[in-house]
């Protein structure tokens, strides 16, 4: 959007979805969602942030997934951790849901995502480096 008072362009919309995790590193929900959607059992996915447990003002990624068939939470968590940098892993939890809420334009409604109960969430997914050098999530 062009701000005529300042004579500059301002980024609005999707950029605001990017959030910072520990150490100030940025996470784009779209990047994490794209990786989740490549899993054979995942038909749709969305990622949002929740306040981190450290109380330092940073956030944790939370993954919401829709699956076409049953998938073990540990399998999905390990898949995500092996495909992303450790700090982009869904350390805030993995939540299975019936569908991903969307706006009239087809974008993920992140406000509605936060209303989904966390009953199936893995409350903390800590990435661990395995002996082979791949990240695994220890639940």
From TrEMBL:
Annotated keywords: Ligase
Highest rank taxon of the organism: Eukaryota
Start and end residues of each AMP-binding enzyme C-terminal domain: 31-107
A GO molecular-function descriptor: CoA-ligase activity
Keyword presence, Ligase: yes
Zinc found in the keyword field: no
Coiled coil: none
Family: Belongs to the ATP-dependent AMP-binding enzyme family.
Official protein name in the record: AMP-binding enzyme C-terminal domain-containing protein
Upper lineage: Eukaryota, Fungi, Dikarya, Ascomycota, Pezizomycotina
């Amino acid at each position: 959007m062009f701000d005529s008072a300042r004579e500059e362009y301002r980024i609005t919309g999707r950029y605001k979805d990017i959030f910072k995790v520990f150490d100030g590193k940025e996470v784009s929900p779209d990047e994490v969602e794209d990786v989740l959607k490549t899993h054979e059992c995942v038909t749709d996915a969305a990622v949002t942030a929740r306040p981190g447990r450290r109380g330092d003002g940073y956030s944790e990624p939370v993954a919401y997934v829709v699956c076409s068939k049953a998938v073990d939470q540990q399998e999905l968590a390990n898949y995500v951790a092996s495909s992303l940098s450790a700090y982009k892993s869904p350390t805030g939890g993995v939540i299975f849901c019936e569908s991903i809420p969307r706006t009239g334009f087809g974008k993920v409604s992140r406000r509605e995502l936060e209303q989904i109960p966390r009953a199936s969430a893995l409350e903390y997914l800590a990435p661990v480096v395995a002996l082979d050098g791949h990240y695994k999530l220890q639940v």
